[in-house]
């Protein structure tokens, strides 16, 4: 596949993500199910009102669209497609999913930090005055856009306000001790402890004989009971159970390699043309690895990792063509 076809694939990916995301937003705001996926976990009842969340309908590449749009908006005055940033933000607010809200918050913080750290390389592309004016003005625009979107969604669906507050442990009616901090309440009220216990159980089941290479993909649990082979809740436990420590290392290795290379290239003057791409990669991977208990990045290589590899192919081909033209 040549670069032209890869770029066409990316344009189709962005278009499909925007269309699916828009339908997801409309579906939740007017309570009409366009997707026909009504699993029990997708039904949210707030103060007697039923909302169809359609969590399975969230576009797989939503985080990529959000991060790339955010990084480009903050650093390039020519980028005007702000609506590509708003769609992921609206979905994050509507779903009331803690992991997604926290991930997007980390994405924003991460993007700002790495853009500041990469100023030396950005200076090779345009002067300091332009960079600072673009960064400050566009940062304000992004903040205003976030506040407007959050306010509109919460105004349209006010019943979710208390639900969000409660899920993050700030509610005065929280069932946990008042002495608990919001972070402690958040951990207690989430599935975090349950996922840790699954990882511990998988480790303990393997530690005597199969910790290195795992037990393999042989289903042992009875019907209706949790099975490590099928996974769910956390992907760390199934990998440790089935593939062992070696499997976990091999699955994480490609992600860590591309993360390290991207950080290196952010500060490499020879890679200044692709600095925004490398910032996007680091911005996406770091929060994902922090949330490793819940992430699927080392399982579903057809999501983030596929996009990273295709972009790397484009970059390497462009570099080779540049060398050929010089020679």
Report the biggest beta sheet as strand number plus sense, adding barrel if it closes: 2 strands, antiparallel
The sequence of SSEs as H and E is HEEHHHHHHHHHHH
Supply the number of helical segments: 12
Strand line-up across the major sheet:
1-2
How big a fraction of the residues is strand?
under 5%
Structural class: mainly alpha
- The number of strands is 2
CA(first)-CA(last) distance? 25 Å
Query: Shape from CA axes?
Result: globular
What is the domain tally? 2
What ranges have pLDDT less than 50 throughout 5 or more consecutive residues?
A: 174-183
Provide the helix percentage: 55-70%
Rg, rounded, reads 22 Å
Q: What is the residue-averaged pLDDT?
A: 75
Defining key terms:
327 residues; mainly alpha; 2 domains; two-stranded antiparallel sheet; globular
Characterize this entry briefly.
This protein folds into two domains: 1-157, no CATH class; 191-327, no CATH class. The chain is built from twelve helices and two strands; from the N terminus they run H-E-E-H-H-H-H-H-H-H-H-H-H-H.
């Amino acid at each position: 596949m040549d670069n032209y076809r890869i770029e066409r694939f990316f344009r189709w990916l962005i278009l499909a993500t925007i269309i699916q995301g828009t339908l997801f937003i409309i579906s939740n705001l007017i309570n009409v199910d366009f997707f026909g996926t009504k699993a029990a976990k997708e039904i949210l009842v707030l103060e007697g009102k039923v909302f169809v969340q359609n969590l399975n309908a969230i576009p797989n590449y939503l985080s990529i669209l959000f991060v790339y749009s955010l990084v480009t908006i903050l650093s390039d005055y020519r980028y005007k497609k702000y609506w590509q940033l708003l769609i992921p933000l609206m979905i994050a607010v509507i779903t009331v999913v803690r992991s997604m809200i926290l991930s997007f918050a980390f994405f924003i913080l991460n993007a700002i930090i790495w853009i500041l750290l990469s100023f030396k390389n950005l200076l090779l592309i345009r002067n300091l005055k332009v960079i600072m004016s673009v960064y400050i003005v566009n940062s304000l625009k992004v903040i205003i856009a976030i506040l407007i979107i959050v306010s509109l969604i919460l105004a349209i669906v006010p019943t979710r306000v208390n639900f969000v507050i409660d899920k993050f442990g700030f509610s005065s009616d929280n069932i946990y001790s008042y002495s608990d901090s919001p972070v402690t309440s958040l951990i207690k009220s989430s599935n975090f402890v349950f996922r840790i216990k699954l990882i511990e159980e998988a480790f303990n089941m393997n530690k005597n004989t199969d910790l290195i290479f795992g037990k393999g993909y042989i289903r042992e649990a009875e019907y209706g009971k949790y099975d490590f082979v099928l996974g769910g809740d956390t992907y760390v436990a199934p990998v440790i159970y089935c593939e062992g420590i070696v499997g976990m290392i091999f699955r994480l290795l490609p992600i860590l390699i591309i993360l390290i290379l991207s950080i290196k290239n952010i500060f490499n003057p020879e890679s200044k043309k692709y600095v925004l791409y490398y910032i996007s990669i680091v911005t996406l991977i770091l929060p994902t690895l922090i949330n490793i208990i819940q992430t699927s990045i080392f399982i579903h290589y057809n999501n983030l990792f596929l996009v990273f590899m295709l972009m790397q192919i484009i970059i390497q081909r462009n570099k080779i063509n540049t060398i050929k033209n010089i020679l």
